[in-house]
Write a structure and sequence with these properties.
Number of helices: 4
Distance between the termini: 13 Å
Helix content: 25-40%
Shape: elongated
Number of domains: 1
């Protein structure tokens, strides 16, 4: 066990050691990209073809959308889709260790060249 004797903030941290041989395969890259899109970029709430009525309905249903309607409409006009989501910063949440475990699981499932040597995610 290591004991820290220098300055320590009250932020949480976790440590790990991984091993991976070679480059990530196309399947691993696609699986990771799909995971990030699905879990970390929020829910698509508007497409570029959204009507004014749809935009107003979303503005009523989603937090902070109404505060940014001009920017959202501009982005839609530029052909961009709009996504909304939230992240919990609750210090008791285990969200980030769970995310890391899922990412590592994807890599492990798609290759024999990836392994978790040590993880200390749930301190």
């Amino acid at each position: 066990m290591k004991i820290r004797i220098d300055f320590v903030t009250n932020s949480s941290s976790a440590s790990f050691i991984l091993a991976h041989k070679g480059e990530f395969s196309d399947a691993q890259k696609k699986a990771l990209a799909d995971y990030v899109i699905d879990k970390m970029l929020g829910e698509k709430i508007l497409d570029p073809g959204a009507t004014e009525e749809e935009i107003q309905e979303v503005a009523e249903d989603y937090y902070k959308v109404e505060d940014h309607l001009d920017e959202i409409k501009q982005a839609l006009a530029e052909g961009k889709s709009i996504y909304s989501g939230d992240v919990s910063f609750d210090p008791n949440a285990v969200q980030y260790p769970d995310v890391l475990e899922e990412v590592w699981g994807i890599l492990d499932e798609l290759s024999d060249d990836f392994e978790i040597i040590d993880d200390d995610l749930y301190i």
